[in-house]
Specification:
The complex is a heterodimer of chains A (404) and B (248). Chain A has eight helices and 19 strands. Chain A has 404 residues and is an alpha/beta fold. The longest helix of chain A is centred in the N-terminal third of the chain and has 21 residues. Chain A starts with a helix and ends in a 5-residue tail after the last helix. Chain A has two domains: 243 residues, no CATH class; 56 residues, no CATH class. In chain A, helix 1 packs antiparallel against helix 5, helix 6 packs across helix 7 and helix 7 runs antiparallel to helix 8. In chain B, strand 11 and strand 12 form a beta hairpin. Chain B has a six-stranded mixed beta sheet with strand order 6-9-10-3-11-12, with helices on both faces. A four-stranded antiparallel beta sheet of chain B has the order 2-1-4-5, covered by helices on one side. The radius of gyration of chain B is 18 Å and the shape is globular. Chain B is an alpha/beta fold. Chain B is built from eight helices and twelve strands. Chain B starts with a strand and ends with a helix. The chains are: A alpha/beta (404), B alpha/beta (248). The interface between A and B is medium-sized, with 25 and 31 residues.
Chain lengths: 404, 248
Amino acid sequence: MTSDHLTVLKSQALEKFNAFASNSAREEEWRYTNVSALAKKNFPLATNESEINLEALAQWKLENCYHFVLVNGFFNEQASYLPKAVDICALSLESESEDDDDFESVLANEKNGFLVLNFFHSNNGLYLNLEKSEVLDKPLQIIHLTTQEAMVNTYHTVVLEENAQATIIETFINRDNQSYLSNSVLECAIENNAELTLYKLQNESEKAFHFGGVYIQQAETSKFTHHNFALGGLLARSEIHCDLDNDSECELNGLYLGQNRQHLDNHTRINHNQPNGISREFYKGILNNRARGVFQGRVIVAENAQKTDSQMNNRNLLLSADAEIDTKPQLEIYADDVKCSHGMTVGQLEEKSIFYLQSRGIDEETAKHVLTFAFANEMVEKVEFEPLKQLLQQQLLIRLPIEL
Amino acid sequence: MLSIQNLSVNVENKHILKGLNLEVKAGEIHAIMGPNGAGKSTLSHVLSGKAGYDVTDGSVSYNDKNLLDMPAEIRAREGVFLAFQYPVEIPGVSNIYLLKAALNAIRKHRGLSEVDAMDFLTMVKAKVKALDMDEKFLYRAVNEGFSGGEKKRNEILQMAMLEPQLCILDETDSGLDIDALKIVAEGVNSLRAENRAFVMITHYQRLLDYIKPDFVHVLADGKIVKSGGAELALELEEKGYSWLEQGV
């Protein structure tokens, strides 16, 4: 493709994104999350700054990890630490696809404007390919740091070949409480019997827009575990799609913690395409002030996906009368011999629990914080990587000041 | 230590306590007995500061302070402890966290520094052992999945750790088999002290076989209708409550 042609397509992609954002309210998939404010913002595309202060990274870099650092969507080699003897590099758009038809096809067919924008405007991203039976010896932390009021697009692609294993931690942070769009997509193929554990800590600024898409193809007997922590963002949307093959298993855990006017949308889709798949989904939400949460969990069990075993659970805690949650489970089952369940709850802190703690000398406000922390901490306790667990608990404690 | 004068309490506009009087001095053990619906649990809840109880008349003074003016947590910090009839399950909060947070809140109120972590652990482990509990309980969520007996023992463990001055035991014997009852009673007896008083609320005399009260009061229809020594409990066991209620 000529660079002139690509420039034209890139500009069309921007137009398509703006049109999508303006009209998102009409799309069923975006029913609860109106992103038209983004069209009005008209953020410029992020640029690569040569001199950049990376001090903000220090508190987020987890120990005992590899680090893949992106600043405003550009790979920062100096701040990164990559595993050796592993097929890993920083992608750029030109290396993604050499087939002109791909570009035309995305532009013509992709309905999700964020994905169109991401495809054409991502600068760098992670490319990781673990070969057969290769096990990444430490977790790989991808840090997305934004320091500009701009649109930052990143695209990651991961391939785990047969029996390979990896843990990846996506971290999204901002330095100066800015307003921007962080748009990140991760695609992963998990081949036979391979295992991916993916963590996401979304701690964008409370003025920021965030779109994070995770698209997983699972082969036979593979396993995918996701832990999704949505703490930041003015308007944040997380999408996770899993396609399961025979005997494969996926576990999706999530916690969204909204305050002030935050809007946190969690959209998941699990496709049971073949028999004997197992899916476990457990999302918890805590919403305070005027925050709004969305949970849309869709499970599609194909006609031949017999013996599918699927459970979905979404529990919400509303801490204020003005907070809102829209929770929508969608089970579409076309097979007849399956075990599928779902449960949704919305509630408040229990008076009797608050009184019990008060009767032991703990003041009412602390009692509420303790109980809220306990509700959230159930999800944090599922994190197996200790440095991340500690970081998450610190973040919870900033929002819920109690002494542990 | 505790002086209740003419206490009248409404719950959801229903008259429950109707002019109750009670004097409790340091070192004493008082048993309050009575039929169901007499207002026994209302009394324990009003003393511990639970919301939803409307005091229409009377006063409660504790160590010469107006108890009814204090929020629940201040009462606890001032040394009032309620052992719940139905201890609350609190998922996600470990027993040891609650014990430490409570102890430190109370110590802070008394102008003491936070408890040293090692001292705390030594102390709590000794009390756990004395109550014949498994140390694992300390790391489990408060009362979650505990049996009835385990919950009651856990209440006594908290009481032992927090060293209150006024202990209110609300139907502590209910749901206990005889072995658990003995352990709980031993726990209570070991806490008996000159500067500490107990108010035990109970439907049955059984508990009083193991914790000998100095005074027994009969609460019927919202007030104390008869008071006496330990022998009154035996009389009640024999005759039931109806002969007293008829006199009301």
